[in-house]
Amino acid sequence: MLHLVGLGLADETDITVRGLEIVKRAERVYLEAYTSILLVDKEKLEAFYGRPVIEADRELVETGSDDILAGGDKVDIVFLVVGDPFGATTHTDLVLRARELGIETTVVPNASIMSGIGCTGLQLYNFGQTVSMVFFTETWKPSSYYDRVRENIQIGLHTLVLLDIKVKEQSLENMARGRRIFEPPRYMTVAQCAAQMLETEEERQEGIYGPDSLAVGAARVGAANQKLVSGTLKELSTVEMGAPLHSLVLLGRRTHDLERDYIREYAVNKETFDASYVKGYGASL
Amino acid sequence: MLHLVGLGLADETDITVRGLEIVKRAERVYLEAYTSILLVDKEKLEAFYGRPVIEADRELVETGSDDILAGGDKVDIVFLVVGDPFGATTHTDLVLRARELGIETTVVPNASIMSGIGCTGLQLYNFGQTVSMVFFTETWKPSSYYDRVRENIQIGLHTLVLLDIKVKEQSLENMARGRRIFEPPRYMTVAQCAAQMLETEEERQEGIYGPDSLAVGAARVGAANQKLVSGTLKELSTVEMGAPLHSLVLLGRRTHDLERDYIREYAVNKETFDASYVKGYGASL
């Protein structure tokens, strides 16, 4: 049987009791380690579980799924996923492959950033569709996310922006030469995201948002050292939030007074916050 | 200190290891028991924790929050919430009250229906805002949810509909006479929700959706006996999904082929599913 077990958001103790029981009795345990990361390393998980954990990189999951699933008709195989198992499409693929092989699947849900972002004080009901932000390069600055943001903004809803992570990426040169040398991991920061959003607006000029638009930066959601900051996109484009993972929420105009009070508490600057707020936000708009 | 601890979606083993540790060492443990329910009863939780659990009904939380928080500056108080602690506004109020009293708060996140609904095979990225459906009465059929659904439908997004539960409700007569007699709990079914949606459309006549619109019914998400059914709203209006809790997802037209393949597997009737699908769905529309 294949068990997709969610790990939650922060550390090794965020696994559920049910998830931990399954991990302890399984034949093999894989850790999905490229669409998100836990805030502790693999060794800490292994010590906590009292057993080895196999790191599954993109290559293994996308081309070696049959190795992961080998023997799954007889033994229990665990695939650990940071957050909730259904957060990323990849795992749907693994489930479909298991189904083809006649292997049963169970899922152990856990906290996901999609609901964990409620820690900001923003109501989950007031969020539109979630978007992803990738690292821009000199020549590649994809802005399809901007169209999704516009749809949310026009309705007055908040937008959760999930930030890119680059793990086990090869440089073009190393890839061309077939060298299995990997670049250091990179995790997008709130500041980088805010700056890229302003870059897109600069280019598209549709006035969907601007330097004075309000947003919330969230770092290490669910961890003891979680950090929240609210402010204008311009302010957030230089904010320092510390270690990964980061997320950003662009505020919708249909913000409730209770939400405003909550996020104002952790504003970079309450004066600029208030000045921006009165210009474009509030449930009555 | 006040600890808001998420219980997840199904049974007593869905608590996280961190959450369980906090419950075991706390001075008092409350269970929020009116915005959602766990699929096991309080006694099972008490046996699992090896300690008493105090049921907190709406009255206690809304008017007796200072009793809940009493001594919170010195001892650990746990407030257990089904799903994730930030799923409902009520708990934000409790946090704000704790803040006023100078009591620190921690949150232990867990799975929420907002992310757990990914078990349907529908991508969380493709959901718009979430709406709530309350029990209609002869004279009260609130349809503000319909406006939210329209906004999602116009963009092509799925809509998660959370279904009403009535726990410890008094009849008007008993309330007027001051009798503390409560009606039996009621949990809205997928069938009731689908029927009410069609009733609203019938009344509003805006053609936002209709009897042939596709939807997914989900019962007991995250539990071993989870059940998923896809079909037209008309089909779902008579479907039998068993014990609570139920949720419904109204399909958006921007459905991806992979999503279609996944939900088609559990269609009430694959023929009517296909017939409805070709008329109005698909990412290319």
From TrEMBL, chains A, B:
One of its GO terms (molecular function) is diphthine methyl ester synthase activity. Pathway: Protein modification; peptidyl-diphthamide biosynthesis. Residues 1-236 form the Tetrapyrrole methylase domain. Its EC number is 2.1.1.314. The keyword S-adenosyl-L-methionine applies. The keyword Transferase applies. PANTHER family: DIPHTHINE METHYL ESTER SYNTHASE, DIPHTHINE SYNTHASE. This is Diphthine methyl ester synthase. The lineage of its organism: Eukaryota, Fungi, Dikarya, Ascomycota, Pezizomycotina.
